[in-house]
């Protein structure tokens, strides 16, 4: 039941992106490093999730993914959790991205939860949000994408 609700939410949330991508119009998406909440001392999890999510989305030939090094070059070290709408617009412009994906991940023992927000750089659109959780990071990322 939870997967069914998640799937419905995912479809509703990504409809603008999916419609453009399926109409043969390529869209550019930049995936920002995720903020990490974990008791583990692992510093690369947020970047790992962003890279894996980027690769999963890149399977669609109409979704162009911004290079992760370019994404990192426009972000300040301390700003993952403090991204306001104006800064998101600026990042999207610098990366020439139609959409920005960002969010947070929580890892407790073997359980992982990923919360994703989609910033739509098109006028009058704003934010969308979704999440996925499970024990397998690959499966959670596949579910999000």
What does this structure look like?
- It is a single chain.
- The chain has 145 residues and is α/β, with parallel strands linked by helices.
- It has one domain: Rossmann fold, CATH 3.40.50.10610.
- Helix content is 41%, strand content 28%.
- Strands 1, 2, 3, 4, 5 and 6 form a 6-stranded mixed β-sheet that branches.
- Helix 2 crosses helix 5.
- The longest helix is centred in the first third of the chain and has 21 residues.
- 31% of the residues are buried.
Beta strand count: 6
* Helix and strand run: HEEHEHHEEEH
- Strand pairing plus helix content: what structural class? alpha/beta
Q: Which whole number gives the mean pLDDT?
A: 79
* Helical percentage: 40-55%
Radius of gyration over C-alpha positions, nearest whole angstrom: 15 Å
Number of domains: 1
Name the beta content range. Answer: 25-35%
Shape: globular
Low-confidence stretches: 1-13
If classified by CATH, what would the architecture be?
A: 3-Layer(aba) Sandwich
How would a textbook summarize the main sheet?
6 strands, mixed
CATH homologous superfamily classification: ABC-type transport auxiliary lipoprotein component
Separation, N- and C-terminal Cα atoms: 19 Å
Q: What's the CATH first level?
A: Alpha Beta
Classify the fold: give the CATH topology.
Rossmann fold
The DSSP helix count reads 5
Topology (elements, then pairings):
Elements lengths: L1 H21 L4 E5 L3 E4 L6 H13 L5 E3 L2 H7 L10 H11 L3 E10 L2 E10 L5 E9 L2 H8 L1
Parallel strand pairs: 1-3, 1-4, 2-4
Antiparallel strand pairs: 4-5, 5-6
Helix pairs in contact: 2-5
């Amino acid at each position: 039941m939870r997967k069914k609700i998640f799937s419905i939410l995912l479809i509703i949330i990504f409809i603008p992106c999916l419609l453009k991508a399926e109409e043969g119009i390529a869209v550019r998406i930049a995936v920002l490093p995720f903020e990490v909440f974990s008791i583990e001392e692992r510093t690369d999890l947020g970047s790992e999730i962003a890279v894996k999510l980027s690769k999963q989305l890149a399977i669609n030939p109409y979704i162009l993914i911004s290079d992760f090094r370019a994404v990192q070059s426009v972000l300040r070290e301390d700003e993952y959790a403090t991204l306001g709408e104006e800064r998101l617009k600026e990042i999207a412009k610098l990366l020439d991205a139609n959409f920005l994906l960002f969010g947070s991940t929580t890892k407790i023992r073997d359980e992982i939860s990923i919360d994703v927000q989609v910033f739509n750089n098109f006028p009058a659109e704003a934010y969308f949000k979704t999440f996925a959780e499970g024990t397998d990071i690959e499966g959670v990322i596949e579910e999000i994408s």
